[in-house]
User: What shape does this take?
Amino acid sequence: MGVIDLDAFAHEVGVDDPVAVAGLCTRGGGPAGVRTVAAPSGILWVQPDEMIVCCGAGTPVDELVDALAEHGQTVALPAGGTVGGALSVGHSDHRRLGYGPVRDVLLQARYVSATGDVVKAGGPTVKNVSGFDLCRLLVGARGTLGFLGEVILRTRPLPPSSQWMSAPATDPDTVFTRLHRPVSVLWNGTTVWALLEGHPFDVAEQADAAGLAACAGPPPLPQGSRRSVPPAAVVDQRGEFVTEVGVGIVHHAEPWSAPPRSARVLELTRAVKAEFDPTGRLNPGIDV
Ligand SMILES: Cc1cc2nc3c(=O)[nH]c(=O)nc-3n(C[C@H](O)[C@H](O)[C@H](O)COP(=O)(O)OP(=O)(O)OC[C@H]3O[C@@H](n4cnc5c(N)ncnc54)[C@H](O)[C@@H]3O)c2cc1C
Assistant: This one.
């Protein structure tokens, strides 16, 4: 379908000065005040039978989703930004319960390193990959270890039907435990929402069993903070919130500061960064 010139991207990234990478900037893009580059965009190929797609990391997720829909498939990346941005931020969206985490989507990455080289990590066939699992290191690294240029992603079949359901509930488990593999279960203290996918008959039967009625969609997720809590704490939230039941992510209206990381974790993170980018030129100032 398209052609991607990774050598040109590597040339743009260069070899010595500080440089940032940005996608659509829905999460702020790279650090301000630094020369900024954008990853190549475009879909190279789709292999529906193998359930894989290859595209530039600068491709908008929405464009990729539209292209995959023509093949009856989709990809489990959050909407809105670019493929590279979604992978580098590393946050799964509300479908993580059914679709799995974002890090499982990336099978192969060709990225530009701090030395301006194009490096390949992972591979489309998992059993052919040996060595360190660099793809999982790059997901969530916010471009501090390398700039994603071209990626091969795992796709998923589009379900025959997909429907949001809701019901009043003061305990989300009363609904959650009656559902078979829901794609998403959200709860705000008084109402539970579930995204059910599959054959229409199965979806309707499950909804009946759990006392759910069809609704227009999920509630808006509060934007103040997003934090991960132990499963038992999901039902123990205060204020305005929406929890992802079965996952442990809570979206709060109030801002929240994550507790400082342990000295050991900080030491490890810095050691990894020093190995990949000893001069700290990639996305300088971004603390992962
Ligand atoms: C309508 C809408 C709905 C959304 N829904 C959700 C949701 O449900 N859940 C959720 O978690 N998010 C959601 N988002 C957020 C969205 O998924 C993220 O903002 C997106 O993943 C970031 O992409 P971006 O291109 O805007 O990245 P940017 O904001 O441009 O960059 C984000 C980070 O990624 C780095 N980066 C960008 N490109 C690369 C690259 N090629 N290589 C290395 N690093 C790179 C940047 O340097 C920066 O550190 C939503 C956004 C919108 C607009």
